[in-house]
Amino acid sequence: MWRSGKIMNARHALMAFTGIVALCGSATVQAAAAKPAAKPAAKAPTPAPAPVIAPEIKTALDRMGNALRALRVYEVKADVTIEDVLVTGQKLQSSMALTIDVKYPDRLYMDANAAHKHRMIYYDGKQITVYGPKTGYYASVAAPPTTRETITVLHDKYGFETPLADLFTWGTPTFPVERIKSAMSAGTDIINGKTCEHYAFRQEGADWQLWIDKEGPGLPCKLLITDTEDPAHPQTTSVMTWNTSIALEDSR
């Protein structure tokens, strides 16, 4: 429901196209057989297609991915705004306060608190527990030995969308850069008092915008995802605040 993994989980990759060769009729083929084959005219070399992602945008994405992958212990808090669409087509927004504590490679604590739903997630390298404080219910399952693998299992096996799941795949081979159909730079913006570079991307099933801290190591400041598979195009926006000097206890 969080739509946070929409970038990673858009349903269709870019389509490849193949050419079609037209065949001549049999009479024409027979007539041509009686004559020496004409030497085909030399074809002009086909220019290389322009890259979907301009080099400077790819550099910015790589910089952000490297910054994320370099973090070993951190906390990120996000103010998340989610749009839901009524059967009438009217949109309603709701808010969620999200806290994610990570200690790589095998510790994760997540608190996603909204008025209608509150979920807490604990991962200790052996099992993951999802707890609902408002209902008192919880569920625990065995988990892989790393956070990144666990996020993937939650989605693929249990259909659970982890909030801001893309944070765990940016800068890794599993992030599907090839699905991006277009990318553009939209200048700079101010997010939480920081100057951030603004980029916009399109892929099958989703448009997304990304703001990357310009002055610091290159961590993401804001992420906005538009679900283009829904005719109403609902959006999910996450504004992030990072603490990379926090000390986290394994027992949390």
Could you characterize the architecture of this molecule?
- With about 250 residues, the chain is an alpha+beta fold.
- The chain is about 15% helix and about 40% strand.
- Strands 6-5-4-3-2-1-11-10-9-8-7 form an eleven-stranded antiparallel beta sheet, with helices on one face.
- A hairpin with a 3-residue loop joins strand 4 (about 120-125) and strand 5 (about 125-130).
- The two termini are about 25 Å apart.
Radius of gyration: 24 Å
Named at the architecture level, the CATH assignment is Clam
Number of strands: 11
The strand line-up of the biggest sheet is 6-5-4-3-2-1-11-10-9-8-7
Tell me the number of structural domains.
Answer: 1
Task: Return the CATH topology.
Answer: outer membrane lipoprotein receptor (LolB), chain A
Helix content bin? 10-25%
Which ranges are low-confidence, i.e. pLDDT below 50, for 5 or more consecutive residues?
8-37
Query: Averaging pLDDT over every residue, what do you get?
Result: 83
> What's the SSE pattern?
HHHEEEEEEHEEEEE
So what's the overall shape?
Answer: globular
Class per helix and strand makeup: alpha+beta
Spell out the CATH superfamily.
Answer: Lipoprotein localisation LolA/LolB/LppX
First-to-last CA distance: 26 Å
Strand composition percent: 35-45%
Q: Which features does this protein show?
A:
single chain; 252 residues; alpha+beta; outer membrane lipoprotein receptor (LolB), chain A; 11-stranded antiparallel β-sheet; 4 helices; 11 strands; globular
Helices and strands, with pairings:
Elements: H1 6-9, H2 26-33, H3 55-70, E1 73-85, E2 91-103, E3 107-114, E4 118-123, E5 127-132, E6 137-142, H4 147-158, E7 180-191, E8 194-203, E9 206-213, E10 220-227, E11 235-243
Antiparallel strand pairs: 1-2, 1-11, 2-3, 3-4, 4-5, 5-6, 7-8, 8-9, 9-10, 10-11
